Structures
1.
Amino acid sequence: MRVAILGGTGSFGQALARRLAGGEEEIVIGSRDAERGRAAAAELGAEGGTNEEAVRGADLAVLAVKADAALSTAEEIAVALGETPLLSVASALHFSKDGVRPDPDARSLAERIADLVQAPVAAGLHTLAAANLGDDAGPPDEDALVCGDDPRAKEPALELAAKLVAGRAVDAGPLASARTLEGLTAVIVNVNRRYKAHAGIRITGLS
Ligand SMILES: NC(=O)c1ccc[n+]([C@@H]2O[C@H](COP(=O)([O-])OP(=O)(O)OC[C@H]3O[C@@H](n4cnc5c(N)ncnc54)[C@H](OP(=O)(O)O)[C@@H]3O)[C@@H](O)[C@H]2O)c1
């Protein structure tokens, strides 16, 4: 599978690329700046370029830009993306001195992204901290949750998720589940702050 990581120069994109490097996936790092994309990719022996260049020929594009740029980037790359499946990993978080809160908007970023692109959209990997994902010790001991309405996006996203964690890639239902998955990131960040941890999620009761 050819995976384009848009905003792949950042913490999460780099951790994702490092976890996949040397495996079966072909990785392409996208950036707003072609040279920055190429430089970040070269360190991993991958291809790089602009976000628009990265999505061409990809089987799955991971939208890993800074969360507050997810909607504008989705809009900007919509034409280049065409019908290439898109995985949103973004959570809009609001930081304050008494804790981290989820986005008050009733609809998830992923649902709003799906309104902006023709491509099928899945959402997932929100609870996978970059620090855990990129850890040299190996895949993190946690599950990765993915949701989506369209199997053209959800299936490759689950396939990717299964390669990232020591736990399971879990199908969390329709794209509307992204409202909860994105909010769960705020819970994880609050737990990390309280317990000075790198927490992850495990779903129990699955056979
Ligand atoms: N960090 C985590 O542990 C974690 C875990 C799960 C999910 N996520 C999600 O992953 C995504 C990336 O998080 P991150 O921590 O990696 O973010 P980040 O390092 O702050 O930013 C990622 C990349 O976004 C691009 N970017 C920054 N401002 C932009 C703008 N105005 N327009 C377009 N692109 C812009 C930059 O790439 P260029 O400058 O090269 O264009 C940057 O390298 C977020 O949606 C976050 O919610 C993060």
2.
Amino acid sequence: MNVREHRGVAPSSPGSVLAEAPLSAMWEGMVADHAGFAAAITVRERVLSDALLFAYSSASVARNLPIVFMGAGPTAPLVFLQAFLSPPTVTCDGARQALIVSVDVAGDLTFSNPSGAETHPIVGHVEISIPPVLMLAAGKVRLQPDHSDVKVITWTFTVSDGTVFKQDTDAYLRSATVRDRLSATVQWALDINLLPLPSVDVTSLGAVIDAAAPPASSVLGPHGQPLPVLVEYPVPARVVDGALVAGFNVENFTAPWSPPGQTGGITLNGDAFALEAFADPYDIAVITNPEALPIVLAGVEQQLVAAVGPDRTLASLTLSAGHDQFDVSGSITETAAVATFSFSIVPHMDAERPGGLINSPDNGSLHIKIKPISIAPRSYAGLWFSAVDPKIDISFDWTDAVLAALGFVLIEPGLIFLVPIAFFTIAQMLADAADEFRASVTSANAGAPVACVHHVTSSTLDNVLLRIALEKFSISPDGPFMGVTVTPKLSPPALVGPQAIPANLRTQALKYSVRLPIGVVADDPYLHIQWTVIDPANGTVHVNSDGLAKDRTSFTVTPEQVAPGLVGYDVGCRVYRTTGLATTDIFEDVVHLVVTPLRSSPVYVRWTVTTPRPTVGLDPTTGWHGGWHLANRRSTIHRLDRVNSPNDPRCQARASRGANLAYLDQLPFAIIDIDKHRHELCDYCFYGGPAGLRETL
Ligand SMILES: [Zn+2]
């Protein structure tokens, strides 16, 4: 069934007495989620918003912008805003058919004409409407509307210091004219690439994307070398409330096998108006049209065609999406003989990494006694495929010899929804007997499963970890469905620095730093950071340093200089934002720094040791393999008082037996640089564990 009618649109039926609502409901179920496209994708607005927030938070983005309102003639008044942009958010607005990007701005707004100039501090709000015009090229879907279609739809502000603009000025600044001038400014910023629009990498959708955007034939460069041509293909899209939905068309895709007599390839053109969100409860979802299975399973077709060879004919081949499986069936002919075959491909999302045993090296080259390494099997979320229920029916004219001549048939479905998903081999599909065929299909090696959960870090954001998980892969007559969740894990704001120092370090400079929440940036001209040093015994304030956040996210203090002789210091940090008359607290914390008695020499220990280290790998077909090499390993530095009476058994200091010990009375670097040297210090001796943020020296 391939119904293309729009949702909610009744067929022309003059005699119909049904009311509109029941008709809508009746037709609701009849449009497939793929809407006739080869594949359709739904992306929720939260994913788009998060992506914009992370882009905003990276250091390379300009957040302080001098904005000259453009788009008016030379006689128009000058309108200028020295703006700081807050983190943007994205809303998918179905009624407007647009992505709405909302940004709060704060800054000094200047109005100037020949009769004078006025400037006041303002807090403003801008909403920009972007139509969902998407282009696909080089595996990326880009938002690429005509810049003239990007419009500012909301522009409001309040003067934040309690003053006002003159009445005429105020009316002009709030007028549609100024809003349109801001639109022109945004369009200009897009033209010169000052505001890059986001793109989504869809290469992981694999074969369908390759078919939707085939590479163009290359052109020859000045020295006759082929130059790639980047061809862009439109991706029809629609905005529904809360999500962006897009479909991928395929034009004239030539599958490895075509039915006899068929000319031309597979063309699937969907109907953008029929796209609806189908992601629930996932963040991103993809559904593939069952008619696109020859594209998705082109690898299966390719291997079948190759195995059948030129002397025989693959007379029929059917790939279909059933309930929880792909069904493959077909027939092979040679003169009067016919063999029909069928099997199914079933997805699984529970994978197991096999166990293994890696024996000691037997040549004695290491001259160290080594125990074999035993690797336990491990279950994990991984997608893999198995072939089940193979059947072959051979007409009597086929002799065993003819079948044997067919040799091996390798089947590789190329189910590349997430690259590289599965290399899935069914060997010896047509052997010299149906039984053997059946046995070999069922025992086929499904290849290495692909992990369903990936953690992605960003080089520009060290406090964000993205967990991307394939939560659901299912097959139904509507087509294969994939549901993905995208979960950001954000490091919370924190005050970092030493919490205990031995008395001799009180004359050294100590460094404290604050980790800001995501979306709060130090170059925000309204953000303030206040550092204090207080005597906890009597509340005396020894340091009170308050100012703009820029260059103040860390703070240096030498305890003996600010207050000699104390046994404790409270180092406090407060982060707050002030716009006009309003103040918002963002973060506040205190480190209770304790000065501890000097410990007897030596204080710290580290060691070097030569150990045999295994190098192991897992081959999907041959299992575990490995060997040994000798490595000179230098330990982290440990506190000797903790080595002697280990507080935490996870501290590796116990492993120092037999090693070449080196004792230290001081750390081999300036204490103020301790952040850069954290990897040289034992997490347990100095930080209370790997997640610890404050040193006990
Ligand atoms: Zn330790």
